[in-house]
Amino acid sequence: MKKILILCTGNSCRSHMAEGILRNALGEGYEVHSAGAKPAGYVHPQAIEVMTELGIDMSGHSSKHLDQFLEAGIDTVITVCGNADQACPTFPGLVNRYHWGFEDPPHAQREGEELVDAFRRIRDEIKLVFEAYASGLKEN
């Protein structure tokens, strides 16, 4: 079973949304996890809310440190923020590594935009990228 780890700095929003979307898109045969270089200790409630709108339940997710996965046999590491990309350690073995950066939803609010709409906008950007990635994986 292929193991994919999605990293962000705080592991509170982007990496969890990407984890939920990718797990949903890939289905069986893959383990998808998320973690952070400096875990916030919680999953942002608005991230949970906007993912529920897609039918993806993240209420059981928790904020984890990337060290938990160093010896887990990870095949692919995907960073979703610049800080995590720079802080990402070298994982043992032959690991595929990708970086797709997204704005941090709690700090991405545009003029006239409600905070929940910033979360939705970034969720939709993540969904577009990670569903395309999943489609490519399933073709191989």
UniProtKB/TrEMBL annotation:
<dbReference type="Pfam" id="PF01451">
    <property type="entry name" value="LMWPc"/>
</dbReference>
<dbReference type="InterPro" id="IPR036196">
    <property type="entry name" value="Ptyr_pPase_sf"/>
</dbReference>
<dbReference type="GO" id="GO:0046685">
    <property type="term" value="P:response to arsenic-containing substance"/>
</dbReference>
<keyword id="KW-0059">Arsenical resistance</keyword>
<dbReference type="InterPro" id="IPR023485">
    <property type="entry name" value="Ptyr_pPase"/>
</dbReference>
<feature type="domain" description="Phosphotyrosine protein phosphatase I">
    <location>
        <begin position="2"/>
        <end position="136"/>
    </location>
</feature>
<protein>
    <submittedName>
        <fullName>Arsenate reductase ArsC</fullName>
    </submittedName>
</protein>
